[in-house]
TrEMBL record, chain A:
Recorded catalytic activity of this chain's protein: tRNA(Phe) + L-phenylalanine + ATP = L-phenylalanyl-tRNA(Phe) + AMP + diphosphate + H(+)
Gene Ontology MF terms: ATP binding; magnesium ion binding; phenylalanine-tRNA ligase activity; tRNA binding
Main location group: cytoplasm
Binding site for Mg(2+): E276
Family from the record: Belongs to the class-II aminoacyl-tRNA synthetase family. Phe-tRNA synthetase alpha subunit type 1 subfamily.
Keyword Membrane belongs to the record: no
Keyword Magnesium: yes
GO biological process, one term: phenylalanyl-tRNA aminoacylation
The protein's name in its UniProt record: Phenylalanine--tRNA ligase alpha subunit
Annotated Aminoacyl-transfer RNA synthetases class-II family profile domain residues: 127-346
Domain of life of the native organism: Bacteria
NCBIfam families in the cross-refs: pheS (TIGR00468)
TrEMBL record, chain B:
Any GO CC annotation of this UniProt entry: phenylalanine-tRNA ligase complex
Cofactor note: Binds 2 magnesium ions per tetramer.
Gene coding for it: pheT
Coiled coil feature spans: none
Record's protein name: Phenylalanine--tRNA ligase beta subunit
Domain of life: Bacteria
Length: 372, 836
C-alpha cells in the first residue's frame, strides 16, 4: 500500500477515496445478496455494475487524477468492481438453479399415461421360431434351400424311395392335385420338406450342407393336435465319409443352441423310406430334466412326465435316394433330419392348442412380438 | 400289434425278473415302437375263487327268471359252508365249476362285491361272466369253467390269468414280421441275448399228395399256396379259455373255434389263414387275376365288382375269395360245418395293397400281406391250425395236403464287414457284423472282409447293404453312436431373397401389422365375393382331388380371401382396429402344362430334359405379400383424436414392402377387383425390364375395397387392402451406391401449382424433378388445397423444393433459375399454373 497522496484536490476526487470505494462495494454486495429473483438481480446489476453505477462513474474520475495516483486508484476501483462482478455471477447461478428447479417441477407430467396411439404389430411366432431354428444351422455353415409347395409326386415320393404301392406311401395322408381333365396329375401338396433334399442335390455341386424350412400338407382335420397345413425344418448333409456320428453331432449342436447347453439326446431306431438306417431323436426335457419321471407329486406338462420330448426323425440318406438324385454313392454319403416347427413352438413356449397357431387371432402373435 | 407278455415268454427265455416296462424300453431301443403297456386286470383284487354249483333253486314271481344257488367255494369263505348267491344267468347246471367273486372282491372298473339282499334272498357274492372279469365280451351268460382246473376255493387269478401285461406296438411299414408274437419274440431274444424258440417249428405230418386240388395261374401273384383239411370237426366245440383270453388281449373277439384258430395262428405266426367249409367248394381251386366284369358277394354281404388287378381264389362256381382281403359269402364256415379247408398263401404285396385300397377293406390279414409275410411259413402255419382244430374240435387231420411252391431263392447281398462301422461311425469289434446278422436270421457266408448275406424269409424289407448295416447298428444300440460336430464348408448364409423376406416381415410388423398364416384352401364363393369377373385369371386355380372341405377344393390364387376371413374372425372377437399381413405362395396353373407330371426312373438322376418336364408340370408359385386394415390406423386417446385407416395406408403398406426390399413402388390409378374403382392404385416397381420406358413392372394393387366386397365378406366399412408380388420386387433390387453427402447449405423454395383435378400429383412431381435439374435434392408435397380461390375443378398442390450443390453454396439466383425451370416443366407437361 502506498502512502496517501495529497498533491490534488480531495473534494474533486471524493469518489476515489478508499473509504468511499469500500462503501460503494459493500453496498453493492449487500444488494446482490438481497436479490431474491433473477429480475431483482438484473436491477441490482444495472444499479451497481451498469454503466451508470457509482463505481463506473468513479472509474471515469481516475483520468482526472495526477498520473502518480492513477495506478493506485485504478487498482482500488477495479478490485471492487471485480468483487461485485463475481458476486453477481455467483448469485445469478444460485437464482437460476432455484428458478430451474421450480419450473421443471411445474412442468412434470404423469409418465404412466398409456400410449397406444399406433397399434403394435407382430410377426407370427411360427415364422420367427423357424428363422431361429434355421439360423442355428446357417451359423454352422449351412445354406437355406427351398422348393415348391405344389410338388411333383416324383420328388415327393418316388425319388425318396416311396414305392408306388408301399404302405409308407399310402400312410402319408396326401392331398392330390386334380388334372384339368379331372384325372390324376402326378402332383401333390408336398407331405414333407424332404423333396427339397432331392432338389438341393440336383441344384448344387457336392458337398451339400443345406437346411430347408417350409410349409407342408396332410389331410388331417384341424384339432388341438393336428393341422392340415404345418411347417417342417429339413436338414441335410451329403459329403465324403459322413457317418451317423455327424448326424448326431449336428442334432446335438442344434439342441444345445435352441434349448440349452448340456441337454442330452436319445436316438431310437425307426423307419423312413428315404433314410437307412433311420431313427427318431428324443430330447431330454429341458424343463424337468427327467425329474418328473415316476414322481406324481411334481408332474411336468412339457414332457408329460416322460422325461423325453420327441424332436423329430432322422437317418442316413438312403443310397437309393442319392442315386435318384444323381449322386455317386461310392464316394458320397449323407444324413438328413426333419423337425416339426409347430411341435417345437408348442413345447418350447407352452402352446397347448394347435388351433391357436392357425386361426390368426391377433392376441396370439402379439404375445410373441417381433422375435421368439 | 398287441402282445401279451406271457404269450411272448413262451418263445423267448426272458429273465424272470424283467418287468413289462423294462421289456418295452428294451424293444424301443432296437426299434419297436411300444406305445403303451396295458396292465390288464391290475384293478381286480380280493377273493375271486373257483366255485362248484351244488344246488340251483329257481325263484319265480319276478319279471325275469332268477336263480338262487348254493355254491361250494371250499374254505375260501372261512366257513366251508356253501355260499348262497343270486344269479340271473341260465347257462349252467348243478355241478358246474364257475368263477365266484366273494364279498370284498373288486372287479374291473372298481366294481366292489359285497353281500346284499336281492330278490328276497341274501346274495353273498357273484357268479361272474367273462365281461365282468374283463376277459372278453360275452353277454350270453356266466363263465362255465372246464373240469380239472382246480378244487373249489382255488384262487382264480392265476388259474385264469386275470392279470396280464400287454405291449401295444405301433409297427412301422418295414417291420411286418413284428405283426406276430413270433416276430416280437425274435426281436426280444436278440435284444437280451437269450434263446428264441420258433413257434413255427411245427412237425409237418402227412404228405404233399392227395390234398384239395389247386393251381396258381402266375407265380407273380402267389409264390406259395398251401391247403390242409380236417374232417369230422365238431362245430359246437368251444375254444379253450386261454385261446379266447389271448385273442381278446390282442384285440380280437372270440367267435367260434374254427375262426378263433385261424386268428390265433395269425397272431402267433403272422400268417393270415382262410377257412372254408369244404362241402361248399365246387371243384378245383385256381388262384388267378380277376376278369373284368366278375363279381363276388363278400362275407360282409356286399356285392363287389372285381378289378382285373384283384387276385382271386376261384372254384368251378367262379370267384370265392378276394385273395388276402376278404372271403366270399357262399363258402364261409357256418355253425354246421364239419369239414374244413385251411388256406395259407404268400400273395404279392403290391396286389394286396392295391386291392385293399380299392375295395376299402383293411383287415388284420391285408395289413400283413401288404407288408410281406414270411415266404416259407405257409405249410407250418396251416399245419399248426389243423392241429389245433384236431385237438380242440375233435377233428381228424387229412393225410394229404396241397403245397404249391413257385418261390425263387433270394440272391445274397454282398457287403463289406466294416459297412456298419462306416455308416454309424462306431468302431465295432471284429465279428460283430456276422454275429448280429445271424441273430436276425440271415445266412452269412464269409470271404475275408466280404460277406454274402441272405436275409431270412420273414424279412422282405432287407434288400440293400444299408438295410443290413441298420440291423447291426440298431442291435448294437443307437446309444453307442458318438457325436461329432458338423464341419460344413464356409456357408453363403441367406440368399438375398431370404433376407428380404425377413426384412419385409419385420418392416410390416414394425409398421403395426400382425402376421397371420392362413390355409391356402379356397372355393369359387371366395372369388365371387371378390367380384372377380368370369374370365378373371385368378379364377384359374389348382384343384385338389380330395379337399378337406368340399366348398374349398381350390388353392388360392390371391392371399386376400384368407386374410379377409381372419380379419372378420378378429372383428367378431371384439377387435375393431385390425391390421394384418401374410407372406405366402399363391398357385397359378401354367397355360399349356402337361396333363400328367412325368415319373422319371429312380435308378439314376433325371436328365436336364426330364427335370425341365417336371418343372413344366408344376404351377407357378410366386410369393406374395398382402395386408388388410380395418378401423383406426391411429387410436384416439388422451392425446387427441384417432385416425381411420384409409386407401393411403394400404398403399403405404405396399410401399413399406418395397422399402424393406430395397425397391421403390410407384402408384398409378387403376380399376381392378376387389378394389373400389376410384380408390385403387396399381403399384409398379422401377427396374430395367420394362424396356427403358420408365413405366416399371406391375407388382400388385392397393386401396380401399369395393363396398360390395366389404358386404359379401362381412367386413367393417372402408376396409382397405393391398397385395404385391414379392418375387418381382426382389428382382428389382439393385446394389445401392453410397450417396455423396454435401456439407454446403440447403436452399429451399416453396411453390404452389394449380392444376386440373384430373392431373395426378405423381405426374406434377415427376415434371418438377425433371425440370429442376441436378441441383434438386428433394421434392415434397406439403399441402393440397381445393376451393374458391383456385376455381372449380382445380386443385392447388404446394411443394417444398430443396436445392443443394456438392461443391459450393448456391446463390439466390441459381436457386431461382432452378425453381423456375422446375415450374416451367410442370407447366408444359401438366398445365400447372404458379399460384399467385
Ligand atoms: Zn419334463
Amino acid at each position: 500500500m502506498s502512502a496517501p497522496n495529497d498533491s490534488y484536490d480531495p473534494v474533486e476526487v471524493t469518489p476515489l477515496h478508499p473509504d468511499e470505494v469500500a462503501r460503494m462495494r459493500d453496498e453493492a454486495l449487500a444488494a446482490i445478496a438481497a436479490a431474491s429473483s433473477l429480475e431483482e438481480l438484473k436491477e441490482v446489476r444495472i444499479a451497481y455494475a451498469g454503466d451508470r453505477s457509482p463505481l463506473a462513474l468513479a472509474n471515469r474520475e481516475i483520468g482526472s487524477l495526477p498520473p502518480s495516483a492513477r495506478a493506485e486508484a485504478g487498482q482500488r476501483v477495479g478490485g471492487a468492481r471485480r468483487e461485485i462482478s463475481e458476486a453477481l455471477k455467483e448469485r445469478g447461478a444460485v437464482l437460476e438453479e432455484e428458478r430451474d428447479n421450480r419450473v421443471l417441477v411445474e412442468e412434470a407430467v404423469d409418465v404412466t399415461l398409456g400410449w397406444d396411439r399406433r397399434p403394435r404389430g407382430a410377426r407370427h411366432p411360427l415364422t420367427t421360431i423357424a428363422e431361429r431354428m434355421t439360423d442355428i444351422f446357417v451359423n454352422m455353415g449351412f445354406e437355406v434351400a427351398e422348393g415348391p409347395e405344389v410338388e411333383a409326386e416324383w420328388y415327393n415320393f418316388d425319388a425318396l424311395n416311396f414305392l408306388p404301392d408301399h404302405p409308407a406311401r399310402t400312410m402319408q395322408d396326401t392331398f392330390f392335385v386334380e388334372a384339368p381333365s379331372g384325372g390324376e396329375s402326378g402332383l401333390v401338396l408336398r407331405t414333407h420338406t424332404s423333396p427339397v433334399q432331392v432338389r438341393a442335390l440336383l441344384d448344387r455341386p457336392l458337398p451339400v450342407y443345406v437346411v430347408a424350412p417350409g410349409k407342408t400338407f396332410r389331410t388331417d382335420e384341424l384339432d388341438a393336435t393336428h393341422t392340415p397345413v404345418f411347417h417342417q425344418l429339413e436338414g441335410m448333409v451329403v459329403d465324403e465319409n459322413i457317418t451317423m456320428a455327424h448326424l448326431r453331432g449336428a442334432i446335438d449342436a442344434f439342441v444345445h443352441s435352441m434349448f440349452g447347453a448340456g441337454l442330452r439326446t436319445r436316438f431310437r431306431p425307426y423307419y423312413f423310406p428315404f433314410t437307412e438306417p433311420s431313427g427318431e431323436v428324443d430330447l431330454e426335457c429341458f424343463v424337468c430334466r427327467g425329474e418328473s419321471v415316476g414322481n406324481p407329486d411334481a408332474p411336468c406338462r412339457t414332457c408329460g412326465s416322460e422325461g423325453w420330448i420327441e424332436l423329430g426323425g432322422c437317418g442316413m440318406i438312403n443310397p437309393r435316394v442319392l442315386v435318384a438324385a444323381g449322386v455317386d454313392t461310392e464316394r458320397y454319403s449323407g444324413w438328413a433330419f426333419g423337425i416339426g416347427v409347430e411341435r417345437t413352438l408348442m413345447f418350447a413356449h407352452g402352446v397347448r392348442d394347435m388351433r391357436d397357431m392357425v386361426e390368426g387371432d391377433v392376441r396370439f402373435a402379439s404375445a410373441f412380438g417381433m422375435e421368439v | 400289434m398287441r402282445v401279451p407278455v406271457s404269450w411272448l415268454r413262451e418263445y423267448v427265455d426272458l429273465p424272470a425278473e424283467l418287468t413289462a416296462r423294462d421289456l418295452a424300453a428294451g424293444l424301443i431301443s432296437v426299434g419297436l415302437e411300444v406305445e403303451t403297456v396295458d396292465e390288464i386286470g391290475a384293478d381286480i383284487t380280493g377273493p375271486i375263487v373257483l366255485g362248484r354249483v351244488r344246488e340251483i333253486e329257481e325263484l319265480t314271481g319276478f319279471k325275469k327268471p332268477i336263480r338262487y344257488c348254493r355254491v361250494d367255494v371250499g374254505a375260501a369263505n372261512g366257513t366251508g359252508e356253501p355260499q348262497g348267491i343270486v344269479c340271473g344267468a341260465r347257462n349252467f347246471s348243478e355241478g358246474d365249476p364257475v368263477v365266484v367273486a366273494l364279498p370284498g372282491a373288486t372287479l374291473p372298473g372298481g366294481f366292489a362285491i359285497s353281500a346284499r339282499t336281492t330278490y328276497g334272498r341274501v346274495s353273498e357274492g357273484m357268479i361272474c361272466s367273462a365281461t365282468e372279469l374283463g376277459l372278453w365280451e360275452d353277454h350270453t351268460g356266466i363263465v362255465v369253467l372246464p373240469e380239472g382246473l382246480g378244487e373249489p376255493g382255488a384262487d382264480i387269478h392265476d388259474l385264469l390269468g386275470l392279470r396280464e401285461d400287454v405291449l401295444d406296438i405301433a409297427v412301422t411299414p418295414d417291420r411286418g414280421y413284428t405283426l406276430s408274437i413270433r416276430g416280437v419274440a425274435r426281436e426280444a431274444a436278440a435284444t437280451y441275448g437269450v434263446s428264441f424258440h420258433d413257434p413255427a417249428d411245427v412237425p409237418v405230418s402227412g404228405t404233399a399228395e392227395g390234398g384239395y386240388p389247386a393251381t396258381v395261374a402266375d407265380p407273380a401273384i402267389c409264390s406259395r399256396y398251401v391247403l390242409r383239411g380236417v374232417t369230422g370237426f365238431d362245430p359246437d366245440a368251444e375254444s379253450p379259455l386261454w385261446m379266447k383270453r389271448r385273442l381278446a388281449q390282442t384285440g380280437v373277439r372270440p367267435i367260434s373255434l374254427a375262426v378263433d384258430v385261424t386268428n390265433y395262428v395269425l397272431m402267433e405266426l403272422g400268417q393270415p389263414l382262410h377257412a372254408w367249409d369244404r362241402d361248399k367248394l365246387r371243384g378245383p381251386i385256381e388262384v388267378r387275376l380277376a376278369h373284368s366284369g366278375e363279381q363276388l358277394e363278400t362275407l360282409d354281404h356286399v356285392k363287389r365288382s372285381l378289378d382285373p388287378d384283384d387276385i382271386l381264389i376261384t372254384d368251378e362256381s367262379g370267384p370265392i375269395n378276394i385273395a388276402g382281403v376278404m372271403g366270399g359269402a357262399t363258402t364261409e364256415i357256418d355253425p354246421t360245418s364239419t369239414n374244413v379247408i385251411i388256406e395259407a398263401a404268400h400273395f404279392s404285396e403290391t396286389h394286396i395293397a392295391r386291392a385293399s385300397r380299392r375295395h376299402q377293406l383293411s383287415s388284420e390279414s391285408s395289413r400283413r400281406f401288404e407288408r410281406g409275410v414270411d415266404s416259407e411259413l405257409q405249410l407250418a402255419a396251416a399245419t399248426r391250425a389243423v392241429n389245433l382244430l384236431a385237438e380242440f374240435g375233435g377233428a381228424g387231420v387229412e393225410e394229404g395236403y396241397t403245397h404249391i411252391d413257385l418261390s425263387v431263392a433270394r440272391e445274397p447281398i454282398t457287403i463289406d464287414e466294416r459297412l456298419p462301422a462306416r455308416v454309424s461311425g462306431v468302431d465295432y469289434p471284429a465279428g460283430t457284423t456276422v454275429r448280429r446278422l445271424r441273430e436276425v436270421g440271415c445266412a452269412v457266408e464269409e470271404a475275408g472282409q466280404t460277406l454274402w448275406v441272405t436275409p431270412p424269409s420273414w424279412r422282405p424289407d432287407i434288400t440293400d447293404p444299408n438295410d443290413l448295416a441298420e440291423e447291426v447298428i440298431r442291435l448294437e444300440g443307437y446309444g453307442e453312436i458318438p457325436s461329432i460336430p458338423p464341419r460344413a464348408p464356409a456357408g453363403r448364409g441367406l440368399t438375398s431373397g431370404q433376407r428380404i423376406r425377413r426384412a419385409v416381415g419385420r418392416g410390416l410388423a414394425g409398421a403395426g401389422f400382425i402376421e397371420t398364416l392362413s390355409y391356402p384352401f379356397v372355393g369359387e364363393g371366395h372369388f365371387d365375393g371378390l367380384r372377380l369377373g368370369p374370365d378373371d385369371e385368378r379364377r384359374r386355380a389348382v384343384r385338389l382331388t380330395n379337399p378337406l372341405n368340399d366348398d374349398e377344393p381350390l388353392l388360392r390364387t390371391t392371399l386376400l380371401p384368407g386374410l379377409l376371413r381372419t380379419l372378420v374372425r378378429n372383428v367378431g372377437r371384439g377387435f375393431n382396429d385390425v391390421a394384418l399381413f401374410e407372406i405366402g405362395l399363391v398357385y397359378l396353373p401354367k397355360e399349356g402344362a402337361p396333363e400328367y407330371a412325368p415319373m422319371p426312373p429312380v435308378d439314376r438322376g433325371p436328365t436336364p430334359e426330364e427335370r425341365a418336364n417336371l418343372e413344366e408340370a408344376l404351377p407357378e408359385q410366386p410369393r406374395r405379400v398382402a395386408a388388410v386394415l380395418a378401423g383406426n390406423r391411429e387410436l384416439s386417446g388422451w392425446w387427441g383424436k384417432g385416425r381411420q385407416a384409409t386407401w393411403a395406408d394400404a398403399i403405404e403398406a405396399a410401399r413399406e414392402v418395397g422399402r424393406a426390399a430395397g425397391a421403390e413402388l410407384r402408384p398409378r390409378p387403376a380399376d381392378d377387383s376387389p378394389w373400389h374403382p376410384g380408390r385403387c392404385a396399381a403399384l409398379y416397381v422401377v427396374n430395367n425390364s420394362d424396356g427403358g420406358s420408365g413405366a416399371g413392372t406391375l407388382v400388385g394393387h392397393a386401396g380401399e375395397l369395393h363396398p360390395r366386397v366389404i358386404g359379401s365378406y362381412g367386413l367393417p366399412a372402408r376396409t382397405v387392402a393391398m397385395e404385391v408380388e414379392l418375387d418381382v420386387i426382389e428382382a428389382a433390387r439393385t446394389t445401392v451406391r453410397a450417396p455423396e453427402i454435401s456439407g454446403y447449405p440447403v436452399a429451399a423454395q416453396d411453390v404452389a401449382l394449380v392444376v386440373d383435378n384430373s392431373v395426378l400429383a405423381a405426374d406434377v412431381e415427376e415434371a418438377l424433378r425433371s425440370g429442376a435439374g441436378d441441383l434438386l435434392e428433394s421434392v415434397r408435397l406439403f399441402d393440397v388445397y381445393t376451393g374458391e380461390q383456385v376455381g372449380e375443378g382445380r386443385k392447388s398442390l404446394a411443394y417444398n423444393l430443396r436445392f443443394r450443390a456438392g461443391d459450393r453454396t448456391l446463390t439466390a439466383e441459381e436457386t431461382t433459375v432452378a425453381r423456375d425451370a422446375a415450374v416451367a416443366a410442370a407447366a408444359s407437361r401438366t398445365g400447372a399454373v404458379l399460384r399467385g
